[in-house]
Amino acid sequence: MTVFPIQNSSSNQIARPGCRERCGNIILPHPFGMHDTNCYRPGFEIICDESVSPPVASYFSRGGPVSSASELIDPGSGWSAPILHKTPFTISNTLNKLTVIGCNIFGFVIPLNNGITNFTSSGCASRCDVILGYNSSIPNPCDSGNGCCKVTIPSGLSGFKIQTASTSDSIQNLCVRAFLVDQEYFAVDDLIVSRDDSVVPVILDWAVPDFSTCREARRNPTGYACGYYTECIDPNNGFGYRCKCAKGYEGNPYLKHGCQDIDECKGPNKCGQEAICINTLGSHRYWRRHSNNTSAWARLLVVHRV
Fold first, then answer.
1. Which residues make Cβ contacts (< 8 Å) with residue 26, sequence separation at least 6?
2. C-alpha dist (Å) from residue 158 to 42, 87, 126, 226, 239
3. Residues 6 or more apart from 220 whose CB is under 8 A from it?
4. Average pLDDT over residues 80-95
5. Residue 235 pLDDT more than 60?
6. Does 175 score more than 70 pLDDT?
7. Which residues on neighbouring strands pair with residue 101, listed in sequence order?
8. Chain Cα centroid distance, residue 55
9. Is 7's pLDDT higher than 50?
10. Strand duo 89-91 + 69-71: pairing
11. What average pLDDT does the chain have?
């Protein structure tokens, strides 16, 4: 499981005071957290398994563990339905692809919404110029459709089914796989001889699920997840809302005082050596000296962020 990074900050505060920030090499910024209920927002508890090396961070919903992995589906089983309902997570439709491996096979994914089928599906057909065997070389990244195909998945996937169907009776191939996978994952050759219960990585998007939109969330200040000096963002995938630091600030926007002012005067002086930089909250100013034959005077330049 990978937690989305927050904006870089000169402040090291990414978790609530007294709360752990890491599970092994995984950074866990608030609203995620471990152990104490004060350390995480409801619904964002992370379980850190330190009995293995390196430690493994897992998310647990009421229905059990949520894995950022997808099973390989063969024609015998045909269907897969992960449990992401009522969690902050949605399967990323921009970072994952439905991938189908095999000869003359059509694979497709059907979104599910709390058990009710949404008929907006996505699929692709994989053909073969030759019969694939265990020693076959699969095109990689299999964009040609010969022995393998990939296709963009629908948005808003919190549950789904995958099914495969043969498009021809002339070629029989037992090595058929259909799965959702991180689109940057290229170990396709290994999957042709893998076990049916093998898994591949999947990237999850997340949002605060308490309310469907930012507009609804702002109407409930007591439960609003965004801290001071923040902006609310409606996600492109799924429902809920996200927070980010306002322009001129950086840090963890999910902490009350997590977004801190950026001191622009610490960087290069863009207004020249004769200018004096003055940092302000969310912005900065320059004093620039000018002289003529009779007097010297100063002019104030206010830098506005757009």
1. 1, 2, 3, 55, 57
2. 19, 8, 26, 24, 10
3. 210, 211
4. 78
5. yes
6. no
7. 148, 177
8. 21
9. no
10. unpaired
11. 75
Residue 7 in tokens:
């904006």
Q: Give the C-alpha separation, 254 to 266, whole Å.
A: 26
The pTM assigned to this predicted structure is: 0.74
Q: Which of 185, 102, 175, 108 is nearest to 145 (CA)?
A: 102
Do the beta carbons of residue 128 and residue 145 sit within 8 Å?
A: no
Q: Which residue has the tokens 């694939």?
A: 132
Distance CA 160, CA 154 (A): 10
Please tell me whether residue 217 adopts helix, strand or coil conformation. Answer: helix
Closest CA to 136 of 125, 148, 124, 145: 148
Q: Kindly report whether the peptide bond that precedes residue 31 is cis, defined as omega within 30 degrees of 0.
A: yes
Instruction: Encode pLDDT of 239-267 as tens digits.
Output: 899 999 999 899 999 999 999 988 877 76
Q: How far apart are CA 90 and CA 236, in angstroms?
A: 11
Spatial separation of the C-alpha atoms in residues 195 and 197, rounded to whole Å:
5
* Under 8 Å between Cβ of 159 and 85: yes
Amino acid (one-letter) located at 84? L
- Alpha carbons 93 and 69: distance in angstroms, whole number: 14
The DSSP-derived string for 159-211 is: EEEEEEEES-SS---S--EEEEEETT---HHHHTTS-TT-EEE--EEE-BTTS
Residue 181's DSSP bridge partners are 97
